[in-house]
Amino acid sequence: MARPTPPRRSVRTAVVWDVLAPLVAEPAAGTGLVVVDLGGGTGGFAVPLAELGHDVTVVDESADALAILERRAGEHGVRVRAVQGDATDLVAITGASGADLVLCHSVLEYVDEPAAALAAVRAVLRPGGSVSVLAANRVAAVVHRALAGRFAEARRTLDDGAGRSGPDDQVARRFTLGGLTALLGEAGLVACAVHGVRVFADLVPGGVIDGESGGGEALLGLERAAATDAELRALATQLHVLAVPG
Asked: Where in the chain is CATH 3.40.50.150?
């Protein structure tokens, strides 16, 4: 029986799955990728990748998230290795040059040292490997706050070098595309594809989508079309970069 394909139709993750699809297409028996999902939490990406036949390890600081991951993997009949740890543990967990693909999604916003985290990611990538980086977009954070009428917060987010709205902001930092690609470059990684994720999805009220026949499908198509538009990408909630060792 053929293995299931990843859930690419979710508006929140469709663009990322579209980018990963050529890398993670169902492998021949015994040729699956070694995948490390740093900060992979409850397995939103890890479990579908394991279903495709890949060898997946999730490294996350949260024991609760890893417990949910193991339960989800069991329900789907796949094995995902769950390891409590962070970026500093990657080499010990995977070994140097031990991974074909590393997912680093919504991690750089929170770690103490993003440069060190990316250096650890680079260290575990095999020659020819890839890293998928998903990070919060500073420009979008400004726009979203302004549209919500939170003008003081928008101004603080704009003026702050880390893109934070103030001391109570739960996100430690947000990125511009230039800043993110520069950080990757410092770690010895070269961006080969850049996409905007959720260009419109977080701006359109849910009632508008629900009230229009086929609205969800239309929004998904629009998101995919806008993902590679350099000007619209600036409005995306998240920036997605696929990078390779330089």
From this structure: 14-137+175-245
The answer to whether 140 and 239 are in contact (CB under 8 A) is: no
For 24, the token pair is 């993670």
By DSSP bridging, strand 125-136 and strand 81-84 are unpaired
Kindly tell me if the per-residue pLDDT of 233 is higher than 90.
yes
Report d(CA 95, CA 71) in Å as an integer. 26
Half-sphere exposure of 170 (CA within 13 A, CB side): 2
What are the DSSP E strand ranges found in 23-115? 34-38, 55-60, 81-84, 99-105
Query: At residue 78, does pLDDT exceed 70?
Result: yes
Which residues have CB under 8 Å from 154's CB, separation 6+? 142, 143, 145, 146, 165
E strand residue ranges, 10-147: 34-38, 55-60, 81-84, 99-105, 125-136
- Rounded CA-CA distance 46/148 in Å is 34
Q: What is the pLDDT of residue 212?
A: 67
Give the pLDDT confidence of 86-132 residue by residue, as tens digits. 999 999 999 999 999 999 999 999 999 999 999 999 999 999 999 99
Q: CATH 3.30.540.10: does it fit domain 14-137+175-245?
A: no
Confidence of residue 205 (pLDDT cuts 50, 70, 90): confident
DSSP helix/strand/coil, 31: coil
The CA R_g of the chain, rounded to the nearest whole Å, is 18
The model's pLDDT over 147-163, given as tens digits with 9 standing for 90+, comes to 999 999 999 999 999 99
